[in-house]
Specification:
The protein has seven helices and six strands. It is mainly α and 305 residues long. The strands form three sheets. The chain has a two-stranded antiparallel ribbon with strand order 1-2. A two-stranded antiparallel sheet has the order 3-4. A hairpin with a 2-residue loop joins strand 5 and strand 6. It is rod-shaped.
Length: 305
Amino acid sequence: MRVTNKSLHESIVSQLNAVSSAMVAANQVISSGKKINRLSDDPVGLVSVLNLRSSLSNLDQLERNLGTGRSWLEAGESALSETENILSEARALCVQMSSANVGAAERSNAVEVVDGYLQQILALANTEVGGRYIFGGTKTNVVPFIFSGSAEAAYQGNETPFSIKIGKQTDLPVGRDGERIFGDCDIDWSDPGAGHDNVFKTLMDLKNHLQLNDPGAVSETLSRLDEHLATIRAVVSDTGAKVLRLETKELILEDLRLGYTERKSEIEDCDIAEAIVNLQSKQLAYQASLASSSRVMQLTLVDYL
């Protein structure tokens, strides 16, 4: 079969392009440090890498969630521990003010102290993290507790605790329904017998008992304070358990990240030494192709005369 000069030249150019492309690809592997730089390099491997990248991205989101959850739980634990301290001080004050050795003037002076306790606990019940309230259920952008009058408080949150996602189908409540901790606010605030589970009502009643110089009523407040303290301690204990759960989840995510990263590296990262040797072989092949092609393409009819 007769091969024309045009066909010969086209074949040589095609072969040179192929060798050149292989050399460029080998150089790109070294430059990027990756074995897979385009779909044609390894279609199956690229799909695996994309899946692993997606898994790592999901881990990033979960870790951010865990960070948010930890900050909420720590802030909640701090606020509740401080509330416990204040209620303990209020209890000690009750014991002192219920004594027969204490007079009306001293009880009157204690009213201001109790009002201070009330204001401190109100501030703690309205604790926020990053501009969001942690004791208002899922209504995190609304102040949970407000005093709508001089003698009553109102709850503006809801009953659903704010939660974070810590797994594909696992949520962990890190916020709180404030009324389950500080008491139901939907009560008759003028009734001394109402709202025994409400911290604010208890302190308001205590102020009233002190103003009326009623040591018996002051003493009866002790049992209510004990109930509040028990509630607070139970929530603090539950918070500690949730923190431990987050810590365990963080360790699991660390192990998963390490595994995903190593697997991704095995698939797409190149061996630099091996890549350099491969590039050198491609360069030699390209130089040899250039040399042989130049000799062939320089031949003319004169060479055979």
